[in-house]
Design a protein that fits this description.
Length: about 475
């Protein structure tokens, strides 16, 4: 079933017991092992780290992968507990390793699991690495794979990166300022790997905090381990009571973050990216490029311009941002879905660090998050409003829609004429006065993502409604021809 294994923007994810099976995990582990034997020098001296999140069977899948790699003659160390993706990524680059395998499906529904290879630089694997692994998948003879698994009777060594990682984070954050500020925090762990990490730092900083969902539940309370407003209703309700200054949350593997302000107001990742850029430049005195993907708010462009910082746009997928962080002088890299990393840290998104930076910002500013946002909006002289929707379509209909829009992009939306079209990732339609729409196939789920941004709520709503009406005609045409 090699054809069932498809690597997206952040590794391979699939439904457990459907495509994500022990057999396919063995295939992927063997393919990664072959890649390591082909590409990593002095492999006999460098262990492969293996971690997993809180999902159903994730630890068992991790141990099966360890078994395969051990039988191939590789050194392996398995995490002693579920581990945040940013923590294992940090560990992969902190000492000589052959990289890491992390078993996670991040924010996907509970029935999913996934695995991704993290190279020794501590960030997402780039396309050239993934392509070599996929090529190895096609070369794996099933009988050889089964022999390899039977040969392995070794127990993998265990490792913990918990304390070194927390120490590394503490060097990036002014914990003394946080302690002095006396802020009260509500932290929603969302049943994730961040429990035992973010709460430990808060405790060490002397923060008065309370924890929601700070335990393992593979069903994620019947919801999704996704730090979006929809799945943070309990945190918002707690914050609305007025007893806390800040609400913090992470996703399932703690690489993404979310923040709720006093009174229960949810702040979007786009807003937080802008605020953190200002904070790092203003309070930390840091310089460097601001890197965002094509789906992230152009408000960030205005903030970068405000502080005379270069702006770099990438395709969707933190691997592209991480690559820029390794090759360019980057201050901050981030995406609209809640992934952020900064100068001096790993080229991988880190929701734990991002939450701590927001807390530090409040401590140093001495203001509410709402007040700090208003300060920035006044300084930038502009604000933007975003909308997003998903189109659940068959593969054939997705292709027909994207092809139709590419060949004949919509010339006017919401009364705004089309200015230009970008094909950096999907189709990005730029309309007059800095309004835009992005239409692209998801790299992690079988949907078409539609993102948009306008300089007023009325305008972006008008753009999205006009777009829906026009694509409905395309989709009706698709039905007529049986697609």
């Amino acid at each position: 079933m090699a054809e069932a294994i498809k690597f997206g923007t952040d590794g391979w994810r699939a439904v457990i017991a459907d495509q994500f099976t022990f057999e396919n995990v063995e295939r992927v582990a063997y393919a990664i092992g072959l890649y390591l034997q082909q590409e990593v020098p002095e492999l006999d001296r460098k262990p492969v780290l293996i971690g997993y999140d809180t999902r159903f069977m994730a630890d068992r899948f991790a141990l099966r992968a360890a078994q395969v790699l051990l039988a191939m003659g590789l050194k392996v160390k398995v995490s002693d507990r579920d581990i945040p993706t940013p923590c294992i990524a940090w560990a992969a680059q902190a000492e000589p390793t052959a990289g890491a395998l992390q078993f996670t499906a991040s924010h996907n529904p509970p029935e999913y699991c996934g695995v991704k290879y993290i190279p020794p630089y501590g960030g997402p694997a780039t396309n050239d690495i993934t392509e070599k692994i996929v090529a190895n998948l096609k070369q794996v003879p099933p009988e050889r794979r089964k022999e390899v698994v039977k040969l392995s009777r070794q127990e993998a060594d265990r490792f913990s990166a918990h304390e070194p990682y927390l120490v590394a984070l503490s060097k990036l954050i002014d914990l003394a300022a946080i302690k002095k500020a006396g802020l009260k925090v509500a932290y929603d762990a969302l049943f994730s790997t961040s429990r035992g990490y973010l709460d430990v730092i808060l405790e060490r900083a002397g923060v008065d905090f309370t924890v929601l969902h700070g335990y393992r539940d593979p069903l994620f309370g019947g919801g999704m381990p996704e730090p979006t407003e929809k799945y943070l209703s309990e945190l918002k309700a707690v914050m609305a009571q007025g007893d806390f200054d800040l609400g913090l949350a992470t996703d399932g593997d703690a690489d993404r973050f979310a923040v709720v302000g006093a009174g229960g107001k949810f702040f979007t990742p786009n807003q937080l990216l802008c605020l953190l850029t200002r904070h790092l430049h203003k309070r930390h005195g840091l310089q460097g490029a601001v890197v965002r993907n094509v789906a992230t708010s152009h408000m960030l462009d205005h903030v970068a311009k405000l502080f005379a910082l270069p702006l770099i746009e990438t395709p969707v997928g933190f691997k592209y941002i991480g690559e820029k962080m390794r090759t360019d002088d980057v201050l901050i890299g981030g995406e609209e879905s809640g992934g952020v990393s900064i100068k001096g840290h790993i080229p991988e998104k880190d929701g734990i660090l991002a939450n701590l930076l927001v807390l530090e910002m409040l401590a140093l500013e001495g203001k509410s998050l709402e007040a700090i946002w208003q300060d920035l909006a006044d300084e930038a002289g502009v604000t933007f409003f975003q909308r997003r929707g998903d189109l659940h379509l068959t593969d054939a209909t997705q292709k027909l829609l994207l092809k139709g829009l590419e060949e004949n992009p919509i010339k006017e939306l919401g009364g705004k004429p089309l200015q230009r079209v970008s094909k950096l990732d999907g189709l990005k339609l730029y309309y007059d006065d800095d309004n835009w729409l992005l239409i692209r196939a998801s790299g992690t789920e079988p949907v078409i993502r539609v993102s948009g941004e306008g300089t007023s709520e009325q305008l972006i709503d008008s753009l999205m409604l006009d777009f829906k009406a026009q694509i409905d005609e395309i989709l009706e045409g698709a039905k007529a021809v049986g697609v």
